[in-house]
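In keeping with the milestone schedule agreed at the kick-off meeting, the structural modelling team has produced records for the first pair of proteins. Each record is given below as a sequence line and a structure-token line. The laboratory manager (R.T.) confirmed that both were archived under the project's standard naming scheme.
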Amino acid sequence: MQWPAKAGVAVISALLVIAVASPLIVFFLEFASDPEHLITLSVSDVKLDPATGNATVVLKIGYSGTVPLKDFTVYMLGENITVGDVVKGEKTIQFSVSAEQVTAGAGGRASVSEVALSFRIAGVYWVKITVKGAVHG
């Protein structure tokens, strides 16, 4: 292979590596600059139905990053909640659980002792985060 061809292959390879790695790099730079606010979860409402023994939970997911998160799933209250794709902004989802799974925290607010998030950064890199004592309504 001639020198110009080798240089061309090297340049194309470098550009491909940069294109594949850049979403991961951007996500972690955004996380490092503001880890408390990049992804936020809050229980905005809990409605108990004594007739069925179930509770309807309204969960707000906020994301301030620029890299889209694909296949976003929240595990809380014994449920896997599929959110789908998350982009910058706020998304509200609603799901039902047994009323026994919802506990009252300080001031009558709903409290969740453990939350796990899983998603793919830009649809490529899988991330799973587990946080204990993280979500309050």
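The second protein of the pair:
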Amino acid sequence: MDWFGLRDALQSKFRIVQFTPRDDQGEAVMIVELEGSGERAAPIVIADVDMRHEGRGIYARATAPIGRVEEMNVPAALDHLKTTVVGGLTVIDEDLMLQHTLPLDGLDTARAVRPLVLLATTAGEMRQRFQVPGAAL
């Protein structure tokens, strides 16, 4: 699957908010939202990671915001991850993010869509569950 194929596959469950093909700096970005999820699911930012120069192929790195680091119970969120099948936690700027990476080489539609649906819904659930009491959403 290539970058355009990933976009096409995701359109079955996600609304494509932004789609940017590879630019002069070699970066491609897509922002998607799970259709019909309202506030329950987090938006996902997907960036392609080209590791062909290292012989590793092309990947899609998907990140979904959970919340501002200072507003989240990070130790509890880390502990929760041992019960999930998708993602790892990372901090980008001041935001706690759930991240998952998919290899694009040989990826089929179901193997692209299902993990990203799970990523969006898990991040949304974690936002509700691990927000420190008194912190604003």
